[in-house]
Amino acid sequence: MVHWTAEEKQLIASLWSKVNVEECGAEALARLLIVYPWTQRFFASFGNLSSPTAIIGNPKVRAHGKKVLTSFGEAVKNLDNIKATYAKLSELHCEKLHVDPENFRLLGDILIIVLASHFARDFTPACQFAWQKLVSVVAHALARKYH
Amino acid sequence: MTLTQAEKAAVVTIWAKVATQADAIGAESLERLFSSYPQTKTYFPHFDLSQGSSQLRGHGSKVMNAIGDAVKHVDDIRGALAKLSELHAYILRVDPVNFKLLSHCILCSVAARYPSDFTPEVHAAWDKFLSSVSSVLTEKYR
């Protein structure tokens, strides 16, 4: 089980309370597809991903980004039980979606950069540390049921 | 991995702003690196790594100056960083995985300071540029 200090929990919760899940989620997924274009391989059905402008404006990207970050919120709500929280999603990503777990790490780091750009000075090194830990734990939990 | 003309332009444009706070950004990036990835501190047992330490600032400056050289010679990063490449391969031997970690922290620091300039396109160009720099610095390892 992951151990969170009171400070880490506080840093995570307080930042999360200020996050616009729809906007941040959309931006994080768009940046993933733009910065690491090979990740587009999972989204052939999303339509026009031919340029950064197309990706940012793509409604399917926005909707899916929101879905992904909303799910992330479950981790924030269940810091002490992230493994169980993502057990089913882990199976899904392995058996149905066939997503290389490296992509969870890529998206986690992109999310961190989006948070840095939104929260600027408030996204202190200590805050980043707590969030790097969180995205790492989430990535790990999502990869855990792979076989 | 080569940078397109547009990507090179994006790198050079943001650098003009970053350069004005290069020292602070360098120090902040290292601070983020040592804080989020404590294993990276093993390369600096001889340093005072506390916040605001002059060694941290000094080293941050060094790193950013080298990046500045790469920006100035974006068409020949290999040539510009040849000496540094040898230094990292034969003397420093920092494990290649750490270049990704520092690049990530530099992107965080830049994003935090210039959010409106750090568009997705600029983000992509910088990620690619720092990846090129990292490649050059590790290409003589073996």
TrEMBL record, chain A:
> GO cellular-component terms in the record?
blood microparticle; haptoglobin-hemoglobin complex; hemoglobin complex
GO terms assigned for molecular function: haptoglobin binding; heme binding; metal ion binding; organic acid binding; oxygen binding; oxygen carrier activity; peroxidase activity
> Which keywords does the record carry?
Heme, Iron, Metal-binding, Oxygen transport, Transport
Residues covered by the Globin domain: 3-147
Query: Pfam families given for it?
Result: Globin
**Keyword match Transport:** yes
Name one process (GO BP) from the record.
hydrogen peroxide catabolic process
List the InterPro entries hit by this protein, alphabetically: Globin, Globin-like_sf, Globin/Proto, Hemoglobin_b, Hemoglobin_oxygen_transport
Assembly, in brief, is: Heterotetramer of two alpha chains and two beta chains.
UniProt record similarity statement: Belongs to the globin family.
**Role of this protein:** Involved in oxygen transport from the lung to the various peripheral tissues.
Q: Which named protein is this?
A: Hemoglobin subunit beta
Question: Which organism encodes this protein?
Answer: Chunga burmeisteri (Black-legged seriema)
From TrEMBL, chain B:
Q: Where is the Globin domain?
A: 2-142
GO annotations of cellular component type: blood microparticle; haptoglobin-hemoglobin complex; hemoglobin complex
The protein's matches in Gene3D superfamilies, at most eight in alphabetical order, are given as: Globins
Keyword Iron in the entry? The reply is yes
Query: Which residue ranges does UniProt annotate as crossing the membrane?
Result: none
- Keyword field: Heme, Iron, Metal-binding, Oxygen transport, Transport
Top-level taxon of the source organism:
Eukaryota
**Annotated InterPro entries:** Globin, Globin-like_sf, Globin/Proto, Hemoglobin_a-typ, Hemoglobin_oxygen_transport, Hemoglobin_pi
What Pfam families does the annotation carry? Answer: Globin
GO terms under biological process: hydrogen peroxide catabolic process
- Which GO MF terms does the UniProt record name? haptoglobin binding; heme binding; iron ion binding; organic acid binding; oxygen binding; oxygen carrier activity; peroxidase activity
Matching CDD domains, A to Z? Hb-alpha-like
How would you summarize the oligomeric state and partners of this protein?
A: Heterotetramer of two alpha-D chains and two beta chains.
What the protein does?
Answer: Involved in oxygen transport from the lung to the various peripheral tissues.
Q: Which family does it belong to?
A: Belongs to the globin family.
The identity of this protein, by name, is HBPI protein
Q: What is the lineage of its organism?
A: Eukaryota, Metazoa, Chordata, Craniata, Vertebrata
